[in-house]
Amino acid sequence: xKCSEFLRELTDYLDGVMDAGTKSELEEHLAWCHNCYxxxxxxxxxxxxxxxxxxxxxxxxxxxxxRSAIATKCQQRRKAGPEGTSS
Amino acid sequence: MGAIxxxxxxxxxxxxxxxEAAKAGDVGAFEELVRRYDRNVFRIAxxxxxxxxxxxDVVQDAFFxxxxxxxxxxxxxxxxxxxxxxxxxxxxxxxxxxxxxxxVSLDEDVKTEDDSVPREVADWSxxxxxxxxxxxxxxxxxxxxxxxxxxxRTVFVLRDVEGLSTEETAEALDLSVPAVKSxxxxxxxxxxxxxNKYFQKRxxxxxxxxxxxxxxxx
Lengths: 87, 218
Known about the structure:
With 87 residues, chain A is mainly α.
């Protein structure tokens, strides 16, 4: 297996969605190709770091304000005969 | 090396009942759906628009649009996937308005070679994120993802941050599954490449490398 072939399969490998045969071919490549091992490992870390970082959490005061604004708009819509409700 | 463990989604057993109640005019039931998903919609909107005010507008507009069009939701997909689809469209519209000089489309013809081939291969420290304070790390991650094209950013956030499946991501973005996979691979590889300079193992133990101000990775 060439490195370019390994890279093409990287997303499925990281997501764990592949047949056992392809998986063992990839792991055989990983066992001797240090570059692909590093790319695979650091890509996995990239995903985990972003997932755990909790970027852009909605602050509580803003959440309260948004919920109230949405509820008001929906109530007004309902009173006006919203398309989205059945009579 | 093991696969990434998928995020476990919350059970949505009563979700359809809430949607049906909201369709019948129960605003309280819709408010419960807002409570469940407003944080997710906000995160997605802010990732796409990269602007706090726009993200606030997207949350309001997406939920209001969902409420107004509930009858069009037929229950073939999850309510959340349907809602994300509305929110992504609203967020992309904001982005287009803000940056009219740049066409923003999820269908844009993206090059398939070269730009994702790793150029720099360097091992990272075992726990690279621990080299930085929480605030520094957020700034690095924020700035780095900001530099990705909107189409890659959107696929990455839905699939890897929010934990939608590949099929759900394809449905929410109206893309084919192979298109999602190709964008996801390239988003992941480009982020990895851009994070290299912050996280790679250093020869000497001379403290964490600080992000340089004004370095916006564009």
